[in-house]
Specification:
alpha+beta, globular, 7 strands, 30% helix
């Protein structure tokens, strides 16, 4: 009996997702979901931004302190929830993944009710 290795995915069939690409929100989502090797990408005004890997001392530690502060604020204010590296979608189709996010608890209930679990910012909340 001869065992063979599973077939490798053809790299030329994996869609490209690079900083500077101009994509629609639907195409951005399609490509991002097919690229598990890309851990952080955003679509802002139709332009893709792929983040570089982050370092522990320059990002990881300060990020930990930031999230700790957001959690303390969340605990002190009943109507507020916080998120860590969660996607936020805007009405214009932009998608960002900020280090930390605040939202009203009822806004998050809408996100969960939509089935996506993704927070969609209200029309009066603009990234610009």
């Amino acid at each position: 009996m001869v065992l063979s290795a599973p077939p490798r995915p053809r790299l030329d069939l994996i869609p490209v997702l690079e900083s500077g690409d101009h994509l629609t929100p639907a195409e951005f989502q399609r490509r991002y979901e097919l690229r598990p090797d890309i851990r952080h990408a955003e679509l802002i005004d139709g332009v893709v931004y792929v983040a570089s890997p982050v370092r522990f001392t320059h990002h990881g530690t300060p990020h930990g302190y930031l999230i700790q502060q957001l959690a303390q604020h969340d605990l002190a204010h009943r109507g507020i929830v916080h998120g860590d590296n969660a996607t936020v979608r805007f009405p214009d189709g932009s998608e960002v993944q900020p280090d930390g996010t605040f939202a009203r608890r009822r806004s998050m209930a809408v996100a969960h009710a939509s089935g996506t679990g993704t927070f969609t910012a209200p029309p009066n909340f603009a990234p610009k």
